[in-house]
Amino acid sequence: MLFRKAKISDIESIHQLITHFADKDLMLARSRSSLYESLREFSVADVGGRVIGAGSLHIIWDDLAEIRSLAIEEEFQNQNVGHGLVDAFLAEAVDLEIPRVFALTYQAQFFIKCGFKLIAKEDLPQKVWKECINCPKFPNCDEVAVIKELDF
What we know:
The chain is of the alpha+beta class. The chain is 26% helix and 30% strand.
């Protein structure tokens, strides 16, 4: 398995992954347009040229980044694919000297297993919410916030 930065040719696979879980109300949907615009933030898990997992690291400010749109094909779940992508995002945050990484998620237990801790969404800076205004669930967000402080 290879963890790598996403390419244009991965967009359709990433979109299908996210849409599959969004249709089950397990994550928020993303348009193809938003995926193209944020392509450089995305990394994928690749097995033999097949994208089996994806997610992104979005920089919020000089001290904070967010893991977004993390999705793993069901047949590859519980095989450390998600952990591998999270580890890649955390390493990227360290390289960028970003000391805190958070996620808004419906899968808090997964992130806790990756070393994150639960926090109140209200404890996150207001700049985190600038994109929430476009979410269909705004202002009634039912995601849970988790955060990890990085050592470097």
